[in-house]
Every structure is written in C-alpha cells, then in structure tokens.
Write a structure and sequence with these properties.
binds nicotinamide-adenine-dinucleotide; 10-stranded mixed beta sheet; alpha/beta
Length: 363
C-alpha cells in the first residue's frame, strides 16, 4: 500500500496561491510516479488569515499544522496589510510564531546556480561557469536575535542600546548535527562560520562543532571567519558546499548566497525541528508587483516541496526526480520572465508548472 503523508498547505498572499498551485500539480505527478499519497489540508495564513479569520496565524491553521507531517508555505504580506501595527503584520505575526510553536531551529537554504542560468547570476560568468550548489545551514532560534538581556536604557543622548549573543553547547550541537548530516549526503565538505578571533560565543561554537565532527569522520570540516566568508562567496563560491552559521551570520550570508543565484523565484528553504517536522517555503516574499499576472516563477515553491519530500517525508527519490526535472526544463530553455535568457520567450507560471510535471512523468 502507498505510504500516506499529510501536508498542511498554507498558500498565503500575493503570488503565494499562484505558485502553490504549481507545486501541488507537481505533488500530483509524484503520486502517479511513486508509491506515496499526499493528504493535503488547506489553511489561511498571513493577510488571508487576517481577512478570513481575524489574525495572521489563526488557531485552526495551527491545529491543521499540528495534525500534519509537514507545512508547505507560500508567502505572506502585501500593501493591503502594511498599515497594521508591526506585531500584527502578516510576516511577523505568522512566521515567527510558527517557528516558535514548532521549535524550527534549523534553517536550510540552498543557493543553486543551474548551469543553464549562469547568466542570471550577479557574478561574472567565469566565476560561476558550470553553476554551483551551496547549502547554508543557519541556526534559527538562538543567538543575538533572541538572547537576553537586550534593550535600550538611559535618557536622551545618554541612551545605550544593547543585545546579548549567547549560545549553549546543546544548541550548537543540534544544529551542527544537521549540517554534518547534510554534508555527509552531499560532497562531504562542511565549512563552519564564526568570528572566533573576537567573540567568546564563537570560541565555544568552534570548539563544539569540532567535537561534533568526531562523529562524522567522513566529513571534511573547515572553519572560516565570517568576514572572510562574505568575501569568498563572491570571489570563489564554488569552493563551498555546506556552510554552517549561527543565526545572524546565517541571516546575512544566506541572503548574499541567494543573490548570487540571480532570482528570488529560484530559491527554496526549509526550517526543521528535531523530529523531522518542517516548514518549507520559497525564500522570497509575496511579490505584490507581479501578483495576479501569471508571470511568477513557481520553481522556488516547487523546490521547497522537493525539500519537504526529502527532509520531512522520507521521499528522497521523488525529491531527486523533481530536482532533475527542474534542471532538465531549464536546459530546454523553458524559463519564466525573471530568469529568461536573451532570445528566450518567457513562459507563464502555469506553463512552467506543466513543463516540470511532464518532465517528471516522462522519466
Ligand atoms: P519579494 O521577495 O516579495 O520581492 C522582491 C522582488 O523579487 C520583486 O521584484 C518580485 O517581483 C521578485 N520575486 C519574488 N519572488 C518571485 C518569483 N517567485 N518569481 C519572480 N519574481 C519574484 O520582497 P518584497 O517586495 O520586499 O516584499 C513583498 C512582501 O512580501 C512584503 O509584504 C514582505 O513583508 C513580504 N515578505 C514575505 C516573506 C515570507 O512570506 N516569508 C518573505 C519576504 C518578504
């Protein structure tokens, strides 16, 4: 009997529902091809949550997520809700609580330049020729964004603003294990990023990552200061495979790595907890400038679904089939507007989804 997996489908706002529709078509194709079925329950989130149920993360949505094996998330936000107080804004009021309710401490962000898209990269062609594939593993729930104390004290020009950067050994260990496991399944190379020449938290980070590395003798571990890593990413990105970062360094470097790939429409991401449960979403936002026009690139959403199959649902073969189909249709010059190379007539969001589905079914 086919394995049944349950998915909470949260399309959200802007291009979210458009690109989600294409990812769901791809899951239909996976059901036809592999021994698995997906029970999907749709729920409101973000602006859609505010409009339909009075808040960005309705309780019913949380219940649906709790009852599912994974969350497939679109994107949230847009001009309609920008007048709301910051705490009620769709992104802040939906994504942050979801991360904290489900303990999603590990953020995985691949930055892939497909060989047929090297021209879309912001780097010179000779630097990216042949493409590259980097995975940034970012700690998501600790570090300077969350550690206490933090605040602003004093009066007038005497005011002082301060934050604390704190990491415990277990917090470092659990994210290090995620990164080592990912590296083991890829090329076996892991570079841990820190600022151990200045920060005590980084000294402990380096020590702990090195100790965890003893469990993974097949992975080659190196360490790099964050300032050097920022430079090396634009100088010679192909030297990297998996990058392990604490929260703030990962925030900055994953955006840098993402931009090297050329379009927000290509970038998937996963946020995982320790029981393989995860939230999978495109790295970009709801793109209000192109919403409703049928031109959004659905690949980020489709590759997010592939990450869900791989990391939460144990369907590695199906995930690989989706990734291969994406690479193949790009080689055939089927491209949406954001990635179309000169001379290529862009296809619509739906046509891109259809092409990926046909490719999966044909192989
Ligand atoms: P954005 O990522 O939505 O858009 C930036 C640029 O990238 C735009 O030009 C857009 O057209 C383009 N783009 C993004 N995704 C694309 C796709 N799939 N195909 C083609 N082009 C694509 O960022 P923004 O404009 O700063 O934010 C818009 C809204 O999204 C805001 O309300 C913001 O709060 C929200 N946002 C949500 C998330 C999330 O849901 N996780 C993340 C970032 C921003």
């Amino acid at each position: 009997m086919a394995r049944s997996c349950s998915i909470a489908v949260l399309p959200g706002d802007g291009i979210g529902p458009e690109v989600m529709a294409e990812a769901l078509k791809v899951l239909d194709a996976v059901e036809k091809k592999f021994d698995v079925t997906f029970a999907r329950t749709h729920a409101n989130v973000g602006g859609a949550g505010i409009d339909n149920e009075g808040k960005a993360l309705p309780d019913t949505t949380v219940d649906i997520c709790r009852a599912s094996d994974a969350i497939l998330f679109g994107s949230v936000g847009g001009p309609k809700w920008e007048f709301l107080p910051p705490d009620e804004q769709p992104e802040r009021a939906a994504l942050l609580p979801l991360r904290s309710i489900f303990g999603l401490y590990a953020n995985l962000r691949p930055a892939i330049v497909f060989s047929s898209l090297t021209r879309a990269s912001s780097l010179k062609e000779e630097v990216v020729s042949g493409g590259f594939d980097i995975l940034v593993v970012r700690e998501l729930t600790g570090g300077i964004y969350f550690s206490q104390p933090k605040g602003i004290e004093g009066e007038g020009r005497g005011r002082v603003g301060f934050d604390t950067l704190r990491y415990s050994v277990p917090e470092i260990e659990r994210i290090a294990h995620v990164a080592f496991r990912a590296a083991r399944e890829r090329s076996g190379k892991l570079c841990s990023i820190d600022k151990a020449n200045v920060l005590s938290s980084s000294v402990l980070w380096r020590e702990t990552v090195t100790a965890v590395g003893k469990d993974y003798p097949e992975v080659e571990l190196t360490h790099m200061y964050v300032d050097n890593a920022a430079m090396q990413l634009v100088r010679r990105p192909k030297q990297f495979d998996v990058l392990l970062c604490e929260n703030m360094f990962g925030d900055i470097l994953s955006d840098e790595a993402a931009m090297l790939t050329g379009s927000m429409g290509m970038l998937a991401s996963a946020s995982l907890n320790s029981s393989k449960f995860g939230l999978f979403e495109p790295a970009g936002g709801s793109a209000p400038d192109i919403a409703g026009k049928g031109v959004a690139n659905p690949i980020a959403q489709i590759l997010s679904a592939a990450m869900m199959l791989k990391y939460s649902l144990g369907q590695e073969q199906a995930a690989a089939a989706i990734e291969a189909a994406v690479a193949a249709i790009l080689d055939k010059k089927i491209m949406t507007r954001d990635i179309a190379t000169p001379g290529v007539k862009p296809v619509s969001t739906a046509a891109m989804g259809d092409a990926i589905v046909s490719e999966i079914l044909a192989n």
